[in-house]
Amino acid sequence: MIHAHEGVTSSEYQTFVKVVNQLLLHIPLTPSMAILLIQDSTLKISYDRGISPEIKLTIQNKCIDLEKKKDSISLDGTFEYMVKEILYEGELSTLCIVFPEQLWNTFEKQTVLKSLTDEVLITSQHESFLEEATTKILKQTNYRIDWTSLADGLVDVVKNTYYQTVSVTILEKVGTDLMITATTNEVFQNTDFVPITTIKQKNSRVFYTIIKNVGSFQHFLAIALKKDSAFYGYLLFGSSPSFTRDQSFLRKIEKHSNDMIELFIQGYELEKAQYHSRNQDLLLQVTKKLHSSMNIGEVLNDIIEVIKDVFPGFSVKVMLSHEWQGDESMNIYLLNYRDNEENKTVEKVYLTGTIEIDVNEKHNKKSVYVPLRGRQGIYGVLEISSLQQQFFTKSELSFIELLADIGGNAFENTELYQQSQRLIHDLQLINEMSQEINSNLKMSDTVHFIISQIVDSFHAEEVGILMMNDNQATLIKGSTTYFEKQGINEYIDRLIKKVIEEQEAVYLGDSRKERGFESFDYQSILAIPMKRMKELKGIFIVMHKKPFHFSFDNFKLLRSLIHHCTLAFSNSIMHEELERLVITDHLTGLYTRSYLDGQIEQSLANDMKGTFLLLDIDNFKNINDTFGHQVGDDILKQVAQLMKDKTRAHDIVARWGGEELAIYLPRIDKEAGHLIAQRIVESVALHTEPKVTVSCGVAHWEARNIDQIGVKTLVDQADKALYVAKNGGKNQVIS
Predict the structure, then answer these.
(1) Confidence category of residue 127, pLDDT binned at 50, 70, 90
(2) Are 577 and 622 in contact (CB under 8 A)?
(3) CA angle 492, 494, 497 (to 5 degrees)
(4) pTM for this structure?
(5) Staple partner for 349: which of 59, 369, 576, 680, CB 3.0–4.6 Å?
(6) With 50 as the cut, is the pLDDT of residue 488 above it?
(7) Of 374, 476, 366, residue with least CA distance to 415
(8) Which long-range contacts (CB under 8 A, 24 or more apart) does 672-675 make?
(9) What is the pLDDT of residues 593-605, one digit of tens each?
């Protein structure tokens, strides 16, 4: 007996009667059998036979509990409950059929249930499917009439109407293939393209076709989406063999397909128009943005982000020529010319400036390579890849190419801007260095300024300056730590010889690849010659431990700097030499008396104390008379060197006149001065040849008696002490 509960319409009741009748035709009438229709945990209609009211209530509650399990089978020891979710009169409902547990086996029950519900429910639904589908799709997509939304909407409608009995696949024509826009077919979900040739096209808009090797869905009903001479794709319906044989379905589709075809054609044209409009807007925005930026990193990042926005799910990589810096965190790399197929494609695109498409079947990847072209050259290659085997339409490739050209031109503008900025900076640096060097003729200041500028401007770790004289190099004081400690070692000597031999600058990006430098710690080396009137005057050596630290632009700039600085540097050397000659005795190499006087005056003004030593070579006239003046000159040189050896670097050792010599010891007290004098006297007696001795007078001053002390007073005191030493037996020190 059929029981209709509250809210059941006549149409729902009639459909339920059909379902029951179909089931009873295939299932023998047995006691204790029930068929229930449940919706939202509420029993709507039921049929039962031979079941007591108490058992009936238990069965109803059990079926309501099983509603959420959808397609399932359950046992409770007495009954077997077969549950199936269906679309019943446009609403999701649950059909529950209750058998005695002993009736048939489970497989037979599932087979009967599936075929009967398919036959009863689908037969009643597909008659008006295409008529009603348009409205359902528009509702499903919130009335968005574009190709993608319509495809997704049709998929949802088919799922809700036919479940697993009927599949639908929406195919878009792309080149010679059909791209799958959306599908309910599990077989098609693992691919992206179907060759057009696999569908046996008929003249009619709606036709049956067979596609081989697509699993159980081999028979399809195809709706060709055509407009005049334009062909956009297919709506492809697949079904079980029993349903495919239902020719009435084909007739219904043919009768009501025009509205669906027109709807999808309009959606296709609208989406392409929207896509073109959006791309134009994006190109305009990108053009404005890229040309407003003068930062290469920002330019490249904007290009990558736009492509990812237009083609979601694709990977984007930029490969730049070696003049630029890579940044792998932004997917920016340097061009690599290794011997493999992918990079051969990249190299071809970079060299020819043409787009190339590459299919890597091993990694299931399809890539398009686009050159970043400017007006003056190609700056890199753009790679867009997908692991999903998707493909680009002709319009999409044109869009990518146009975007890459915009990026290439913006890249070029950025490069030109940065080049101009670098040129301005370089000219300023050259100008500043030239002015500073020319305004200061002191050698030590010139060396310090040049080295500090090179370290700051080129981030160099070591800078050495060598002066040349008859192809012999002398390291200039003030060079950085490595040169001060190592001097001219085997590596520096090789560089010097290379510059002398080639008479040109040397640029080593990775010195360890050069013969003789395999173990050298510094891999980036610039050796720039200083030339004056085609003559090699010196060499600048600039080094860094990291390979390729100095760019070729750094090399050119440093060479230009050295060229501009050579004259000023030579002038500093000449000035220093002239100054040295003025304040130095040409025979002994000691300071002159005038220079000594000046240094004593400075010490009297600035220090708290000091000691003055006045020395005289004993019996010097006898040396000249006995051995000649040349030997006498040599004795002066020997004594002068012994005096230097026994004093500090900042002590002033001078030739006072004739055989008299003098030493001024700043900030030294009388006792310490006397000891120094004593060591000098003893050393002269032991280490001269022929043997000579010296006598020494010592004078001292302190701040407490500064008002009574001057240079003349100090000299007079020392001279008196020297006189006492001479008259007291010579070869001694008197304070």
Answers:
(1) very low
(2) no
(3) 110
(4) 0.39
(5) 369
(6) yes
(7) 374
(8) 672/611, 673/611, 673/612, 673/613, 673/698, 673/700, 673/735, 674/698, 674/733, 674/735
(9) 988 999 999 999 8
